[in-house]
Amino acid sequence: MAKGGVMVTGGAGFIGAHVCRKLLEELGHPVICLDNLSTGSVDNLADLLANPDFTFVEHDITHPIPEDVPKCLYILNLACPGSPVFLQRDKEKAILTSILGLRNVLRFAITSRSETVFQASTGAVYGDPEVTPQRESYPGRVNPVGPLACYEEGKRAAEALCLAYREQCGIRVKIGRLFNTYGPGMHLNAGTVVANFLTQALRGQPLTVYGDGRQIRTFCYIDDMVDGILRLAMDTPGEFTGPLNLGSDVEVSIRELAEIVLEVTAAKSEIRTLPASAGTARLRRPEIGLAKQQLGWEPTTGLQEGLEKTAAYFRTVLETSAET
Ligand code: UDP
Prior knowledge:
- The protein has 324 residues and is of the alpha/beta class.
- The chain is 39% helix and 16% strand.
- A seven-stranded parallel beta sheet has the order 3-2-1-4-5-6-11, sandwiched between helices. Strands 7-10 form a two-stranded parallel ribbon. Strands 8-13 form a two-stranded parallel ribbon.
- Strand 1, helix 1 (14-26) and strand 2 (31-35) form a beta-alpha-beta unit.
- It starts with 5 loop residues before the first strand and ends with a helix.
- The model has no long low-confidence stretch (mean pLDDT 96).
- Uridine-5'-diphosphate is lined by residues 84, 124, 180, 192-193, 196, 208-210, 215, 217, 254, 277, 280, 284.
């Protein structure tokens, strides 16, 4: 029997495209990808477009999902601009995509009798935390009028909306809080730290460390993240909603990351200190015990290995763009 169809909103984005590929090529599910192409690109899906089990629909989820879009057993909601450059470009869009977009996804799930909705939340719901690592029970410390509020508060409200629909409409939801993720296919110009450092190193430009560089992050390789997302969305018991942290728990300071990038790329660039970016969290590191317990999952790709693979991808993209 054919496996159930999966809708991936935001499927043309970095994480979404990897999710679509794994669903189709490894797990054998038909996939419908919805994306408004505001930050994603069909180039990310070029190898999938000819697959008869893959459908791409250009659609912005802040508008109701058209009724003629085929029903799907699962809906994975990955649509939302999250990286600094995209967020700054249109904050209203970010918050509306998180809330109104999710509402449209949940309503579509009800009318199309989908079994499960996976909501891509974020480690940013913890804001600028006073505790580390952050466990799911930690409520976070977010400034509702801070520079990143449209993203942080939008994603927090989205979690609340998921629970409201579960309670009021009986819909099965799974909330994954995704922490910093990197890998081939990521956007070179999104302003995220891995993308900036790799492009700078490969171009022989200074690596820009914002602030003192002592802010802590963890970086999860894309294959590990996709594996975690799909396990949470498809393999957990129906009553398990989360939220569940997904990310690496290996701490790196931003200055250390700059040094590792220089080593991996063998670049001779200097490290340049620039003013801290407004509203940036000092500490972000997930406690992933719940993911280990519920999914039997933890990241397996080390930072060095992941950065080597990502650098190889960046080299190809930079060379190709230099030729054209
Ligand atoms: N950052 C940096 N240089 C850059 C880009 C980012 O020092 O060129 C810093 C940024 O201020 C933040 C950290 O790296 O403290 C991670 O930034 P990113 O936007 O990648 O992720 P997030 O802050 O959402 O975790």
